[in-house]
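User: Let's play a game. I give you a shape written as tokens, and you guess the letters that built it. Ready? Here's round one.
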């Protein structure tokens, strides 16, 4: 019976949460249950009964007039896209590689910034009072190399995941067996996902605490000890962001193919709006980071734009979710 219930849930996933739709869904659920029990009483096996019920009641377009939801169905979102088991696995693998590339890109950019700060703050050395080592040019070179590597990883991740961009805004439809299997995988990974998010947040807090502790020791401003603290903080934040990206994208991929969480049909339009904002937003954050560093020589402090930017983006996304009406309850 759970298979039938899941199937009906997916049939109604793209419809608005009106009284008529909820009534029709309850009616179809009751009809399906009654037919299932009739078939079982006639001697049909569980799998056979489920299959025959889905075959009889599994086409919402044919049932819309009888259920009184033809208008809602005609106004519903585009038809779902069908994924085979193999395509679903390929989708998950592409998303996994994309998450690793994105987290690697973030690590490269922040590591480059950390090297820039580190070399700029390195003590100058002289040999025989003539030659003097200046770490700033080397830091700049390493920063731009790391920035190029990070941007390249972002681009490669975007290109590799773009093959599924045509399916944005559409519910992914799986076979009942595959849907149940991926829902079970998603449920089994809940603890791992929560630990990943908690670990990433904890690492960010610990990284920021390093600078706070060093500042509390009275380290000389611009001195070697303060520079070491800043570098450790930036690298810690880079690792934390990587953990958060991998954990959240892995979860989102399973949400996407099971139409759960942020990828439930009622959230798709909201996510499209957030996605349109995300690109310009993070480019602006990068611009602030670079201007603060190059124009105002703020490399000792400009790393703060990343955790602050992340928190602000989370607030923006939460605000959109709160004020944007959803289609279902």
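Assistant: Ready! My guess for every position:
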């Amino acid at each position: 019976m759970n298979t039938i219930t899941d199937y009906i849930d997916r049939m109604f996933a793209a419809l608005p949460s009106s009284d008529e739709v909820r009534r029709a869904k309850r009616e179809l659920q009751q009809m399906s249950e009654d037919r299932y029990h009739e078939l079982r009483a006639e001697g049909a096996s569980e799998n056979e009964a489920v299959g025959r019920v889905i075959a009889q009641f599994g086409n919402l377009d044919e049932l819309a007039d009888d259920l009184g939801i033809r208008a809602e169905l005609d106004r519903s979102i585009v038809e779902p896209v069908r994924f085979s088991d193999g395509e679903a696995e390929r989708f998950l693998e592409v998303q996994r590689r994309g998450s690793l590339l994105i987290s690697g890109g973030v690590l490269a950019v922040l590591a480059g910034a950390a090297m820039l700060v580190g070399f700029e703050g390195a003590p100058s050395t002289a040999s025989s009072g003539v030659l003097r080592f200046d770490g700033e040019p080397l830091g700049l070179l390493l920063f731009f190399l790391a920035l190029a590597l990070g941007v390249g990883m972002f681009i490669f991740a975007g290109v590799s995941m773009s093959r599924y961009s045509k399916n944005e805004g559409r519910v992914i439809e799986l076979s009942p067996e595959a849907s149940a299997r991926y829902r079970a995988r998603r449920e089994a990974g809940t603890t791992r996902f929560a630990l990943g998010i908690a670990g990433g947040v904890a690492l960010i807090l610990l990284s920021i605490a390093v600078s706070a502790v060093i500042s509390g020791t009275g380290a000389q401003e611009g001195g070697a000890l303060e520079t070491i603290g800043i570098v450790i903080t930036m690298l810690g934040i880079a690792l934390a962001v990587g953990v958060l990206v991998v954990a959240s994208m892995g979860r989102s991929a399973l949400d996407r193919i099971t139409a759960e969480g942020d990828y439930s049909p009622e959230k798709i339009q909201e996510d499209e709006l957030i996605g349109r904002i995300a690109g310009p937003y993070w480019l602006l954050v990068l611009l602030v980071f670079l201007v603060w560093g190059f124009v105002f020589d703020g490399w000792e402090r400009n790393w703060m734009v990343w955790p602050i930017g992340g928190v602000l983006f989370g607030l923006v996304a939460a605000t959109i979710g709160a004020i944007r009406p959803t289609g279902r309850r």
